[in-house]
Structure prediction request, 119 residues.
Amino acid sequence: MSETKAAELRTYTYEELAGHDVYELAHSGWTGEVYWSEDSLYLTDDDDGLPMLLPLFYEGPIPDFRWDAPNCISLYDWAEIRQEALDKDAACFERLFREIDAWLTEEDRQAGCFWILGI
Prediction:
């Protein structure tokens, strides 16, 4: 009998990407000029947990959120999305938020935001 593993959403580094359609998380200083940065994190649409995460943006604090365009995400809204996600399915989202928390820089924290660049 095979064991079914629960979906676990995670981030990827630039070096880990293998030609997937991805959503890039860029630091607060992103100027709109450079995509596919080596210091960005990436979410791949191959992860089973991504469809559970998407509605937490546009059904939650960011009703005009677009996954096909750059979005500046305030850390306040991010905290709300994080709490909702962990309440919904901590097993799926815990690693994702731990990785993003570790990636955020002091500059991101001072600016109070980061970017999610659309697919």
